[in-house]
C-alpha cells in the first residue's frame, strides 16, 4: 500500500483582495444555514444536539462502565466469595474486603465489602479480575453525596439484584469468548 | 528476542548500524548490546559530549534528534538484573481499612557498580535509526557533562533528570528544577525516596515572595 | 541557522529588570515590563506559566515554566503491576487517551515478546485513529475559541462529541477509556460498529467542513496565524520537536510512515506536510490529518477479518471468562496473572514509540524480572514541543503567544506527567 507525502494546499494570500470579503460571506452563509437548521429543524424531526441533563439523559452504549456494584443473587445473598482478586487488581486500592465463613456450599462470603468511591476511577479492572461475575460495573454514574462519609459504600449499599444489571452482564457475556 | 546481556559482546555479530557506530566512536564505546531490536552502547561519562558530537556529525549516522534523556537508579546492580529483587513485601497485613502496603517500593540490594545510569535516546530523522546511550554515574558525585551544546533540546530534558534524579549536568546553561518547586527536598524518582513520603508546603521564595499574603480561611462545616 | 548548536536557550528571568535605552534622544530609559502569563490564563488551554519581559507589546525575553500538573506518574508506575498502569496512561494525554494506552501496551509487549493477533492490530488502529481525530478536533476548536471565534469551536466540539459516541460504544467511557490491554483489547468491536462508525464520521466531517469554511479563508484568522510562531525545520529537529509541528515545517517524519507498526504498512494514506512552518501550516496539517485518520479507520473497517482479539498466552493475557468459569487451569492462570508475585516479565529494557496526537509518544520500560516495572519512562511529545516556545515568541508581539501556544497543543498531562 502506498503512503505518500502530500503538501498541504494553502489558499493564496487574500488579506487585501476582494476574496476576503467573499470568504466572510461564505462563512456567514454557513452560520445562517446552521441557524435555520436549528430554528426550524424541529419540523423535520431534528433533535437538539444538546442534552438538557436532569430532564433528559444520555443514551449510553451497552459497554458503559458506571460504578462497581455487587451482584445479588435471587436468594438475596451476594455472589462474591471474598477471594480478594478485585482488591488485588484495583490500581487505587479502593476496595476493602474482610472475608468470613458460611455454612452454605460456597463456604466463604465477604463480611465487609467497602468501596471508597472517592478513590475509585471506574477503570473496570475489578470486574475483569473477578472469577465469579460477582462485581460488575453498573450503569449508575450519579453518585455524588452531601458528605464525605457518603462516598464510602458498604456491602448493603452495593448489592444490586441481578435483574437490574442485565445490560451489563449481557455485554460481558458477549465478550467472554474473545 | 532474548536478553543477551550474558553473552560477551565480541562473540555477537554486530548489526550494520552498530558497526557504523563502533567504527565512528572507536575506543569511546565500553560495551554494546542489541536487545529486543534496540541498539545500545555504553559510554564513560566523561566521553559523552565527544561521543554525542561524533554521532551527530558523522554522515552515515547523523543522529540529529535527541528524543529523550532520563536516568535509572540501578542501586549499583548490573543492567541485566541477574538478581531477583525482593521488591514484594510478603508480610502483607490482612486486616486494614485502606491497603497501602502493596504499593510500597522497597530498596533493592546495593551492588558494586556506579549507582545511576543516564540514558540518551537518539533518532536520525534522515536515515531513521535509533540508538540508546548509557552512562553510569556514581552516587557520590552524580555529575555528567551536558549535551546542550550539541542538541539544544537537551536543555529541558536534562533539567527534568536533574529535578527527579538529582544528577547534575555540568556546563548546563540553566540547571534548575523544572517540574517541582525550588524548595522541594530530595529527588523523588530515586529508589530511596518513598512513594508515600510527604513534605510540608514550603514557604515561597521566588519573585514576589516578599509581598504580604492573606491567609486562606477555609469554610468551616461539618465533615 | 546552519549549526543548531548556535541556538541559545532563553534565559531564566530573575532579579531586577534591565533597562531599555530610549530610541528617541531626550527620552528617559525605561525598564521592561514584567508580565506573568498564566499559570491559568483564560486564553490558554493548559496550565503553564510564561514570565515575559515586554517593551510595549514586543516580547524581549520569555521564560516558559511547566510542571503545574506534575503528578508523579513515573513513580506511581513503579509501584503498580504492568496491567494496573494502563488506566493511569489515560491521564497522560487526556485528549487522545487510546493512543497512550496503545503506546504503553505495545512497549510492554515488546518487553515481553508478545505477538498480538491480526484482528487486535486492526482494532487498535481503528480506536487509535478515532482518538487522534478527537485530539485534533479539540486542538483546532480550542484554538478558535482562544482566538475569539466561538462558532467553529461549537461545531468542532459537536464533531468531537460524535467521535466520542463511537469511543463510548467501543470502550464504555468517553475520556478515561482504559481500552487496550497487554496482549489484546478489553472488548471486541460491538455489532454493527462499521455502519455506526461511517455514519458518525460522516457527520463529524460535515461539521469539520463547515468549520474549515469559516476559518481557512477568514482574513482575521489568517492574519493571526500566518507568519507567527515560525521556526525552521533544522531548529525544530535540534529541539526534538515531532508531530504536526515538525511536519508543518516540511519534514515528513511520521512514525506511521517511517517505522510502520500495527497495520499501517497495509493502509493507504497521505502524510500532510507544510512548507512555511508557521501556525497556519500547523492548522492545515491538523485538518488534513483528521481526513487521513478517517480514511485509515474506514480502510481498517473494510479490511478487518473475524478472529480472536486476544493473544492466547496464559503468561500475560488474562484468559477469557468462559474458560475461567469452567476450567481449573484457566482459573489458576487468572489468579496468577492478577497476583503477579512470581514475576513473569523477563528482565531487560525496551523503548517503543508510536505516533501520538502531538508527536512521538514513547515508553521506555526497564524490567527487573518482577511483576512491576522497575522504571517506566514516558517520552511525551509536549515537553519537547514546549521547549522552543520561547524561541518562537521572543521578538514577536504579545498576541502571537496565543496562536503559537494553541498550535503546539501542549497537554499538561503528558508534558508534566
Please tell me about this protein's structure.
The complex is a heterotrimer of chains A (178), B (223) and C (417). Chain A has five helices and seven strands, in the order βαβαββαββαβα. With 178 residues, chain A is of the alpha+beta class. Chain A has a domain at 68-141 and 148-174: Alpha-Beta Plaits, CATH 3.30.70. Chain A has a three-stranded mixed β-sheet. A three-stranded antiparallel β-sheet of chain A has the order 3-4-6. Chain B has a domain at 17-78 and 103-170: Beta Polymerase, domain 2 (2-Layer Sandwich), CATH 3.30.460.80. The radius of gyration of chain B is 22 Å and the shape is globular. Chain C is 45% helix and 12% strand. In chain C, strands 1-2-3 form a three-stranded antiparallel β-sheet. A three-stranded antiparallel β-sheet of chain C has the order 7-8-9. In chain C, α4 runs antiparallel to α11 (279-303) and α6 packs antiparallel against α11 (279-303). Chains A and C meet through β1, α1, α2 and α3 of A and α2, α5, α6, α7 and β6 of C.
Detail the topology: elements first, then pairings.
The complex is a heterotrimer of chains A (178), B (223) and C (417).
Chain A lengths: L2 E5 L10 H23 L27 E5 L12 H5 L5 E7 L6 E9 L8 H5 L5 E3 L14 E2 L1 H4 E3 L4 H9 L4
Parallel strand pairs in A: 2-7
Antiparallel strand pairs in A: 2-5, 3-4, 4-6
Chain B lengths: L15 H10 L3 E7 L2 E6 L4 H10 L7 E9 L42 E8 L6 E8 L5 E3 L8 H12 L2 E3 L53
Parallel strand pairs in B: 2-5, 6-7
Antiparallel strand pairs in B: 1-2, 3-4, 4-5
Chain C lengths: L32 E5 L11 E7 L2 E8 L7 H6 L7 H5 L6 H16 L5 H29 L3 H22 L8 E2 L2 E2 L7 H23 L3 H7 L7 H6 L5 H4 L7 H4 L10 E5 L5 H25 L17 H6 L1 H11 L9 E8 L4 E8 L5 E7 L1 H6 L2 H5 L7 H8 L3 H5 L1
Antiparallel strand pairs in C: 1-2, 2-3, 4-5, 7-8, 8-9
